[in-house]
Each structure stands twice: as C-alpha cells, then as structure tokens.
Amino acid sequence: MNRRFSWFNATSLTLGFAFLYLPMIILIIFSFNASKLVTVWAGFSTKWYGELLGNQAFLDAAWVTLKVAVLSSTLATVLGTMAAYVLVRAGRFAGRTLFSGMIYAPLVMPEVITGLAMLLLFISIGLDRGVGTIVLAHTTFTMCYVSVVVSSRLVTFDKSLEEAALDLGCTPFDAFRSVTLPIIAPAVISGWLLAFTLSLDDLVISQFAAGPSSTTLPMKIFSSVRLGVSPEINALSTLMISVVTVGVITASLVSKRSIARQRAEEQAAART
Amino acid sequence: MNLRRLFLIGTPYLWLLVFFLIPFVIVLKIALSDYAISIPPYTPTLDLSAGWEGVKSFFAALDFENFSFLASDALYWKAYLSSLQIAAISTIITLIVGYPIAYGMAQASDEWRPTLMMLVILPFWTSFLIRIYSWIGILSNEGFLNQLLMWLGIIDTPLTILNTNVAVYVGIVYAYLPFMILPIYAALEKLDGSLIEAAEDLGCSRASAFWLITLPLSKPGVIAGCFLVFIPALGEFVIPSILGGSSTLMIGKVLFEEFFSNRDWPVASAVAVVLLLILIVPIILFQRNEQKQREANQ
Questions:
Q1: pLDDT tens digit string along B67-107?
Q2: What is the second-level CATH architecture of the domain B73-297?
Q3: Does the beta-carbon distance from A112 to B272 stay under 8 Å?
Q4: Mean pLDDT for chain A?
Q5: Is the per-residue pLDDT at B18 higher than 90?
Q6: Looking at chain B, which terminus has fewer C-beta neighbours within 10 angstroms, N or C?
C-alpha cells in the first residue's frame, strides 16, 4: 500500500490508541491515589499496595493462580506441540478430521459452555474439584492455542532438514530433539507464554472448574468488582499489567534477536 | 503403525477426547434429563448400566422437555435475541472504530509499523477482566467521563451509562478492537498501492478511489474481523455481568445464573446446546471465508 501521511491517519491513530490505553493508564494512576474514593485525586500514596500485600486472601489466591498457570501451561505446551506435530507431519490417520476439529473448536467455543461441560465431566467421574481440576480444564483449552502457534511455525519449516537427520542415522526422537525442536523453539516458547497468560487471566472456566476451597486471582477480583471499584483492586491490576507488559516486551526482544541471529547464520551458511 | 507414532498421535487425541468431546456428550445427555431436587440435581433418562433395555427406554421416553421449556419461556428466546442484537451492534461499532485505525497503521512508515502492531497486540495480553474493570471508574455516575462532560459544560447532571446496554457496547468494542484491527490491517498492508495511483491518474478523487478500490480489496479482512468479534461477543459473560445492568439480557449470563443460582443443570445444559447450534452458522461462514483467502493467496 502506498504511504501517505495525512492528518486523518494521524488523528485516527491517536484517538484509537488513546481509546485502547487511557482506561488502563487511568487505572494505574489511581492505584497511587491516597483517597479511598477512586475517582477523586487526593495525593500520591502507595498505601493500597501495602494493604494488598497484607491481605492474606489475595496472597493465597495469587499463589493458587501462579501454581495453576505454571502447571497447566507446561502441560499444554507439551500436548499442544505434540498435537501441532501430528497435524502438520503425521499425514493421514483414522479420525484426523475429528482431531483437527477438536483442536480448533475450543478456540471459538464460548467459555461458559467449555466451563459447564468440564464441570459436568468432573462431577460425573467423581473428581474432587480444586487446583487439580482447574489445571486439567486450563490445559485443555490452552493446548489448542499452543498447537495453533506451533503448527504455524512447523508449516514454514523445511522438512528436508528432518529427513537429512534421519538419513544420517538419527532416530526420529533424536531428529526431533536436535533438529526440529531448536528451530521451532521460539514458537514453543511463545505458545507457553500465551498459555500462561490465558491461564492467569481466565475467570469463567476457573469459576466452573474450581471447588469451594480453591480461588484464583481473577475469581477474587470478580467477586470484589461486583461490589464496585476499590483502590486495592486498582493496585493489584497495576501489578498484573506491569508483569505482563515487561514479559511481552522481553519476549518480543528475545524473539527479534533470535530471528536476527538465525538470519545471520543462514547468510553465513549461504556464503560458504 | 509403530508404537512411537501411536504414542505421538494417541496422547493429545485421548486428552481431547476425554476432556473436550466427552464433556459435550455429557452436556447433551443432561440437557435431555429431568430436573430433580437431589445431588446431582437431575435424573438421567439414559441408563447405560441397564444395557440395551436402558437405551430402548431412553428412546421411548425421549422428550425435548427442557428445549420446549426454553421455547415457551420468554426469558430464554429474548436472551438469545438480545445477545444476537448486542453482538451485531457492537460488531458494527467495532468495525467503524477499527477500520480507520487499521488504515492509519497500513499507511504508517516502515519504522513505525512494528511499534504500532505491538501497541495493538499488547492489550490482548493484558487481563481481560482488568481491562473491563477499568471502565467502571470511567462510566460510573461520578466517573471520569461524567466529570469531563460536566466540566466542559455539555451536561448538567451525570448520565447513567454504567449498568446499561451502552456500557456493554463500550466494553465489547474495547475488548475486541484488536481482533478487528489485525485482519483488516493484514488485508490493507498487502494492497497494491499502484492500483490507487492508477485510479487517481484516471481521474478518481481520493474518496472515490478509497470507495472503489481500497474498501472492496479489504473486504476479506473486514469479514474476518467481524466474525472474530461477533462470535465471542455472542457468548460473552464477563462484560454483561460487570458493565451491564439487571436489564441486560445475554445468554452467557443466563446460562451462568441458571447453573449457579438456580442450580437447574438440565436447563443450563439445554441453553448451552442451543447456543452452540446458533454459533455453528457464523463459525462455518467464518471458516469458508478463511478457506477462500487461503486459496486466493496460493
């Protein structure tokens, strides 16, 4: 497309990004508000962060959330990478259509339905609801996102490299470990990060899958949000936003550098 | 088939069968069951332990009681209709808001584009719940929007926006805007600039060149974006329950309350089944659009 700077474009970009970012910026600023009134500025203070760190219920929920996110995203990365490999490389097998359907369906499924279905399964097989069931539920819906991310990388990847390794006497597992995995690693890592943030974020599916004893941070936020805005939630949100922002920016810098390195290696290989 | 291949295919396959497909079969089964005051709160009409006799009596007694209940109670079909309406209206607003942003991004210089792209994607990584929550402080009666409008002298008394459908529209547009921007941007970025130059050389005004060339060529992106907003908006639960009021009827919220407050599992399951049936149409249309795109790109 030809580039033409115009006032129209500048205005729409400015307004658009203001719309996307102002609510979060306001939220962050008012988490440092001294007053309990969340819409009236009464001076700078970090007291809500102090109260947040002293609130045992929030700390417990944060710990549950973190545990669930680490466990489910790791499990989802393993299963999702396997699923992507099957989709792209395994060729034909019985029930392939059903398999790819089950990979893509959770992406468009309303969370209330996935959550309800999961809960009914857990009840009918008599599984006690708690951290374990949240992990199972999160793994199931996030593995599909992982497999979409990883398979998009696998599709562009030159299959002959794998075949060369096999010809040179590698076992299929060795070929996967020493040839395929290093090349798809950036996609696997971003798949893990995506699964991790989705799990960290999820409210609806957790609400269904969690028992009365286990509460995640989003569930805690949701139940207090229903009572209105509170400065403590603002402080908590600010912490969560900063963690994610730092994580995403670091991840994109790392992947940019690894792409640059890969390109440099390819050029060096082409020269020799 | 060797063992390794069996393991590779079998592991994710089995996982999805157990934790994705079977749960839906259970939902369907409970949707066809009768409500009962017990734990669990339904009596199954399909008794597999009775073997073939059980299956026969299931089909003999098969009624779509819960579904006819959904059809007879105005609450449910009103909720479906109102979800469709809310999802459609917010999709159109998202398109109107998102298109100029995608257009501006596509025309930005090469150094700027990765940054702009990052700025669109970043909110997507930030907690959905928090992003919706941040609007409470803006839209409430003593919130920032009312403060600003009163300070500007546009209004004298605060507008009631929070806990109305307007707040739900704002929430959906805000939450799903990146889904609209990205496919439209992808379509506009590929667009061949010389076509527009040619149109202008041939005497088109900028506006009519946009109308005759840019807009039709970005249509696949527009269609993809609309489906990516419409499909999740239809089953939305978080936005109507945080920003909407008691009069906001959305089917996701109805399902949630039917299950957790009324504890009527059979009806909640029937609500889910009907919602799925409604969703199949836009999902198939969306996939057809994607398929067409893939073929066009090859």
A1: 877 777 888 889 999 999 999 999 999 999 999 999 999 98
A2: Orthogonal Bundle (1.10)
A3: yes
A4: 87
A5: yes
A6: C
Of residues B209 and A196, which shows the higher confidence score?
A: A196
pLDDT beyond 60 at A112: yes
* Beta-bridge partner residues of B43: B34
- Domain coordinates in residue numbering, chain B: 73-297
Task: Tell me the pLDDT tens digit for each residue of B32-63.
Answer: 887 765 556 666 665 555 566 666 666 666 66
Instruction: Note whether A176 contacts B: Cβ–Cβ < 8 A.
Output: no
Question: A42: burial class by Cβ within 10 Å (0-12, 13-18, 19+)?
Answer: exposed
Rounded CA-CA distance B207/B209 in Å is: 5
What are φ and ψ of residue A92, in 5° steps? Answer: -85, 140
CA distance B224 to B237: 22
Cis peptide before A23 (omega within 30 of 0): no
Which helix or strand (DSSP H or E) is residue A85 part of? helix A56-89
Of B9, B27, B133, the CB nearest to A225: B133
8 Å CB contact of B27 and A95: no
What six digits make up the tokens of A130?
A: 């708690």
B294 touches chain A (CB under 8 A): no
Helix or strand holding residue B43 (H, E): strand B42-43
CA pair distance A103, A139, nearest whole angstrom: 12
Tell me if the bond preceding B40 is cis, omega within 30° of 0: yes
Check B12 against A6: CB less than 8 A apart. Answer: no
Give A34's pLDDT tier (boundaries 50, 70, 90). confident
Q: Which residues of A touch B197 (CB under 8 A)?
A: 2
In 3D space, the residue among A32, A30, A67, A63 whose CA is nearest the CA of residue A46 turns out to be A32
Please calculate the CA angle B189-A245-B168 and round it to the nearest 5 degrees: 75
Residue bearing tokens 């990004």: A17
* Contacting A residues, span 60-119, partner chain B, CB-CB under 8 Å: 79-80, 82-83, 85-86, 90, 93, 95, 98-99, 102-103, 105-106, 108-113, 116-118
pLDDT at B38: 57
Q: Helix %, strand %, coil % for chain B, to 5?
A: 75, 0, 25
Q: Is B19 on the interface with A (CB under 8 A)?
A: yes
What are the pLDDT digits (tens) for B117-158?
Answer: 988 988 888 888 999 999 998 998 888 898 888 888 888 888
Alpha carbons within 13 angstroms on the beta-carbon side of residue B170 total: 22
How far does the CA of residue B277 sit from the closest CA of chain A (Å)?
A: 11
- Chain B touched by A166 (CB under 8 Å): no
ipTM (interface predicted TM): 0.86
How far does the CA of residue B61 sit from the closest CA of chain A (Å)? 22
The residue in chain A having the minimum alpha-carbon distance to the alpha carbon of residue B44 is: A124
The answer to whether the Cβ–Cβ distance between A118 and B23 falls below 8 Å is yes
Q: Mark yes or no for CB contact B127/A248 under 8 Å.
A: no
Kindly report the number of other CB atoms within 10 A of residue B36's CB atom: 13
A213-233 residue pLDDT tens: 889 999 999 988 877 777 888
Only one residue has tokens 């994109």, namely A252
Q: Is A270 on the interface with B (CB under 8 A)?
A: no
